[in-house]
Write a structure and sequence with these properties.
single chain, 289 residues, alpha/beta, Rossmann fold, 6-stranded parallel beta sheet, two-stranded parallel sheet, 9 helices, 39% helix
């Protein structure tokens, strides 16, 4: 019997990567919904859709992700990142469905010097981070069977992201200044999508919080250097401190995630960041031979 899977935020990076992989899981029946069909600000619409389609699984990729804009739109960010997540968790609990909810490294304050485990103390420093943490807490309180995956620095061949921005700017300009004192590891959305579908395809379900990002420890400056190298570009890159590039929302200075738990429990692959970056740039047709 096919598993019916509802994927919210299907126009986003992760949602589109899940669409690419959907055909490789013939025993799964996917419903990919956009904001127009499944608006997290319209709870009546959400319930109507859920009750009509009755999915076995919900993968919630939808979120308010405009990190800086959230500082001036806290109510909207709270509705999308927290209140709507509570609704999804409640519905899932009532209908014995499984919920996979995507969260973020922004729930941490960035003061650590070792990779964050799932049990590390949270202390968000932005509206975005606070609302995402509220969503996690609401989901777990409403449905103990929820599976939360925190990720970081997401990029893909789809949408707007750091990799595609760097490719464009490196071809338009002779030099770029890139922040060098924020440390983490990027996440290729295709890798995360594969990990999620592997979890759903398994007979195993162990709820709770998990971390997923690619392997490696780099700064944004080093990430830009890797993009330049793999793409064979000639732009000069200069590393600058965060203080030289002020933003409305504070970014974690350190957001490296410890991914051992998800590897051990679900046996998912966590490729090296450069290996995945190369694959993404090959898909974009810009990786040098």
């Amino acid at each position: 019997m096919s598993k019916r899977i509802l994927v919210t935020g299907s126009n986003g990076q992760l949602g589109q990567e899940l669409q690419v992989l959907a055909s490789t899981y013939p025993d799964m029946l996917f419903d990919f919904v956009t904001r127009e069909e499944f608006d997290l600000e319209d709870e009546e619409q959400l319930l109507t859709y859920l009750n009509k389609t009755t999915p076995d699984y919900v993968i919630n990729c939808a979120a308010y992700t405009a990190v800086d804009k959230a500082e001036s739109e806290p109510e909207k960010a709270t509705q999308i990142n927290a209140h709507a997540v509570r609704l999804l968790a409640n519905w899932s609990a009532e209908h014995h469905a499984k919920l996979v909810h995507i969260s973020t490294d922004y729930v941490f304050d960035g003061s650590s010097s070792i990779p964050y485990t799932e049990t590390a103390v949270t202390n968000p420093q932005s509206v975005y981070g606070s609302t995402k943490l509220e969503g996690e807490q609401a989901a777990l309180a409403s449905n103990p069977e929820v599976l939360i995956i925190r990720t970081a620095w997401v990029y893909s061949v789809f949408g707007n992201n750091f990799v595609k921005t760097m490719l464009r700017l490196m071809q338009e300009r002779d030099s770029l200044n890139i922040v060098k004192d924020q440390i983490g590891s990027p996440t290729y959305a295709a890798d995360l999508a594969q990990a999620i579908l592997k979890i759903l395809a398994s007979a195993h379900w162990e709820s709770g919080i998990y971390h997923y990002s690619n392997a490696g420890r780099i700064s944004w400056y080093e990430f830009a250097q890797a993009i330049k190298e793999v793409a064979g570009l000639a732009c000069d890159l200069d590393g600058i401190p965060t203080s030289a590039y002020p933003t409305p929302a504070k970014r974690p200075a350190y957001s490296l995630l410890n991914t051992q738990k998800i590897q051990q429990v679900y046996k998912v692959a966590v490729p090296d960041y450069k290996e995945s970056l190369t694959m993404c740039l090959q898909h974009l047709g810009v990786a040098k031979n």
